[in-house]
Design goal:
This protein is of the alpha/beta class and 330 residues long. The chain has 3 domains: 183 residues, Spore Coat Polysaccharide Biosynthesis Protein SpsA, Chain A (Alpha-Beta Complex); 30 residues, no CATH class; 98 residues, HAD superfamily/HAD-like (Rossmann fold, 3-Layer(aba) Sandwich), CATH 3.40.50.1000. The protein is built from 8 helices and 13 strands. The strands form 4 sheets. The chain has a 6-stranded mixed sheet, with helices on both faces. A 3-stranded parallel sheet has the order 11-12-13. A two-stranded antiparallel ribbon has the order 2-3. 32% of the residues are buried.
Length: 330
């Protein structure tokens, strides 16, 4: 099954300029969504849809594919998700013959999410054949039963319920529980987008979450920083890939790389203990060859758990580092 993650990252944010690549805890905002998609057990392909060549290069560094640069006409303030996703699916079908069975929408502005939630939502859609999509929601802080339209000076209830007399006058505890879409994860069938021309379709499955970390304004960053401190309570570890995570390859042909399984097991234990894992590599520094896709694919295939994948370490014969420790000390 083709399960495609699409991360939309246009460059024209007005509330926070260059929001999608702003540095949050040491890495670009959109990198969180890319890494989560690559860590999923069910997502088989991850692309970023952006109108910026600069954004595209950043996304590739973190392991995402950039099969196209999004046209300007669907990159403005009023471009809809449907236009962006239709363009991506039609482009992949026309240029590669690729068709997505399931499409996962991961917004860069919701950087804190559990990969387990992504996979659970995908599995829900796979299991429920009559569903068009699954949408993540969280309990609403306000009830629509106490909201009003105003017309010519007169209040009109936004929501009415024939089973509840004057719902707007009832105690909150007696009113039905309502949920707010939290913009964290949407999972949709490819056919829903292309055939029904909808991001959700008619039958929308519910996946209930507790929190929402959507970043729209600078004030939202404080909530993100607080949550991040809870998520990563340990140290930051930086691992070289070749010679550490991967066994050395003949003639630096990284297509032939094999996993160093004992080291990977130790890295994963550090990750599970709430430490922050950075993978750092000089692949391509001398030759200019782009190894980002190969490397990200290998890390996923080998089951390496990490938070950040960095390229561009200077190519050298020797490295001297005052913080070096042996993997055997971990």
């Amino acid at each position: 099954m083709n399960v495609l993650a699409i991360i939309p990252a246009r460059s024209g944010s007005k509330s926070i300029p260059d929001k999608n690549i702003m540095s949050v805890n040491g890495k670009p905002l959109m990198a969180y969504s890319i890494e989560q998609a690559l860590s999923s057990k069910l997502i088989t392909r991850t692309i970023v849809s952006t109108d910026s060549d600069y954004y595209a290069q950043i996304a590739k560094t973190f392991g995402a594919e950039i099969p196209f640069v999004r046209p300007a006409e669907i990159s403005g303030d009023f471009a809809t998700d449907l236009e962006v996703f239709e363009h991506a699916l039609r482009f992949l079908k026309s240029t590669e013959g690729y068709e997505a069975d399931v499409v996962v929408h991961l917004r860069p502005t919701t950087p804190i999410r559990n990969v387990e939630d992504i996979d659970a939502m995908i599995q829900l859609l796979i299991n429920n054949k009559n569903w068009d999509s699954v949408r993540s929601v969280a309990p609403s802080p306000e009830t629509p039963f106490k909201m009003w339209f105003e017309e010519n000076g007169v209040l009109i209830p936004v929501v009415t319920d024939k089973h509840i007399d004057e719902a707007y006058n009832q105690p909150r505890q007696k009113l039905p529980k309502v949920y707010l879409q939290n913009a964290s994860i949407d999972v949709t069938r490819g056919a829903t987008i292309l055939s029904k021309k909808s991001m959700t379709g008619d039958v929308i499955g519910a996946y209930i979450m507790k929190e929402n970390y959507d970043i729209d304004h600078y004030s939202d960053l404080e909530k993100l920083k607080s949550a991040s401190k809870e998520e990563f309570s340990g140290k930051t570890f930086c691992f070289d890939i070749d010679g550490v995570v991967a066994n050395l390859s003949p003639n630096n042909d990284y297509n032939l790389s094999t996993p160093n399984t004992p080291v990977i097991e130790k890295i994963n234990r550090l990750y599970d203990a709430k430490n922050y894992i950075v993978l750092f590599t000089a692949r391509g520094s001398k030759t200019g060859i782009d190894w980002s896709e190969v490397t990200a694919t290998q890390m996923k295939k080998w089951g390496v758990k990490y938070h950040e994948l960095r390229f561009g370490k200077p190519a050298a014969d020797y490295y001297i580092d005052d913080r070096l420790i042996s993997i055997n000390q971990l």
